[in-house]
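HOLO CASE FILE
Compound: adenosine-5'-diphosphate
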Amino acid sequence: MLIFATSDKGGTGRSVTSSNILYRSALQGSDVCYLDFDFGSPTAGAIFNIAAVAHGTTRGGLHEYLDGALAEPQRIEVWAESDRASLRERPPGAGRLVLLPGDAGGGEFPATREHVERCADLFLRLEEEFDLSLVDLSAGRSWATQMVLAATAMPKLRSVRCRWLVFHRWTRQHVLAASGLVYGPRGILDIGTRAGHDYDELLNSLRFVRTAVVDPDSPELEGLKPAQVAWLRECNQDLLELASVSRVGRTMLIGSVPLDPVLQWREQLISDNDVHARKIANLETVEAFSLLAKLIVDDSAWEML
Amino acid sequence: MLTLGEVHTGLLQNSTALSLDHTTQLLDLLVGQRVRRSERPIAYAVSPDQLTGVDCRLPTASGRVTRGVGTVVSHAAVTGGHVVQGSTYTRLDRAASNRRLIWSHYLSRPGRVETIGKVDFSDVAQGFLSPAPQPQTLNLGAVSARLMDVVQSSPRLDRRPPFRTKRTRLRWAIRPAPDATAEPRGTFRVESDTLRTLELTAPHDDVSALVELCEDLALHDWLLTTLLSLMEFSLTGPGTRAQKIDRLRPAIDCLLHLWMPAARLDESVLPVWRDLEHRPGFTRQWQTSVTRIRDQVTLSTIALLEAPAR
Ligand SMILES: Nc1ncnc2c1ncn2[C@@H]1O[C@H](COP(=O)(O)OP(=O)(O)O)[C@@H](O)[C@H]1O
Ligand SMILES: [Mg+2]
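Model generated. Tokens follow.
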């Protein structure tokens, strides 16, 4: 299965959230890989703690592969090559966790027919090997998004299952932007149908993920004054309504990730150790990632709306 | 003289074993040329040979620049309706002339690449077998991988494979034996989890028998690699014995009956297999794994039989 991670804006938490979801899938036993298609700012290396590719690789990554300069993009086995000790051991029963980094100094490029072909071939090869391939796209209406929409519309990918996750923060601006990215002009549905996708099918394979959400009922807000809590509740209510009329509401939602103190400070994977032994990250955050890892492959979460 | 090749092996992207007739249609890649097939000892079909023109640098261990021009041969094969291979090879010879000739010259020598300028064949062999990638040099693996892609993306396949697994690559080189009557000898190396190399010294009179040897070896190495990784995943993961057996089911259903080393090979290349059976001992490793799986299945059956009695 191919999962495309997108967002209208940068800084939404798309890369950090999707990396953590994928990490949880691997821990749950799936063989997974992460493709850094955010060609302008490849950051996946930093999140997986692989210093050599922290800002993209210099040894032939996805950008160079798609450009036709290499036969195979570089791959990094995270369990073997991460610089973080707690990631360097594959837990029993865990699946493979592989990173395909972007290139340092890559930048966007116009997607030609050849790019689309090579992109489709890559997806098919990864499908042979991995239960899940997650493609982290660049923010907004990018060439990368057009390319993958064109590639997945090709007849040879017809029987490959594809799902889309649209990440956004829980604010007015982000709700509207995420809605525009999906439903607006030159949005995913618009470009997708022009590339040959069926509108309803594409819409049904797409869900929203809310990131860094502050729950007004959270016990952590106990220190706030009653007026502040009341105000937060009101904002939240307004947002729920806005989301619903913008078609970003409950029926299109697959999960929410709470605001986490660790992620606020650093882009990283949250290990069980960070929660249970070091007690620096919240259990709710990891539970949200684990649940999302289950839901993205659970057909009942993707039933026709 | 030097012959180089690379075989890629993977799981055919279909939910069930493809019948020999369907396999034949799948591999019918060139109009007007026949797919070769055989039923025994195991269903096997191979596509017609395809030629790819090359004009590029040759890999070298020393970094010396050597140019090669000519054609490489490749074909795709399917064994047992489950395992697909892409295989590409070419023979390198010194050109008589020091410049590139017209294409018809090279086309009349299919599967040959002529080297232009100074060349040290053992340097090229070392460079080719080296696991470090040498960008912008002769890449036979890329041709094999593309050919496999063509087969794997055929609409004749349902793309619902019984399990997911890696392709493996066997990169091989044959140097002529100093003594034309000597038996062929090979050194097999596991370079990474997906790359293996085989260095052969052999008389060069029957290259196709040697190519088949490499393909057979690649097939069995893939079977063993895949079985071991399925076992590791199934047996070390969480769950009851029944759940573990369940995870092993695809291996039991589609891999166990495919082990038939050297079944189709020419007599002349058997000494290489014999050496490899001695060390690393492919069949011994395979048998150990199969026994372990059978034991698990037996234990799980016993547990099932005993369950209602309690
Ligand atoms: N649940 C969260 N709680 C707090 N901060 C978060 C959370 N998720 C992501 N972040 C932070 O938000 C910032 C942007 O995240 P990133 O994944 O790089 O965004 P994007 O890929 O959308 O540009 C990072 O500093 C990240 O650590
Ligand atoms: Mg990012």
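CASE NOTES: The domain at 2-215+248-298 of chain A is CATH 3.40.50.300 (Rossmann fold). The first strand of chain A starts at residue 2 and ends at 6.
CLOSED: yes
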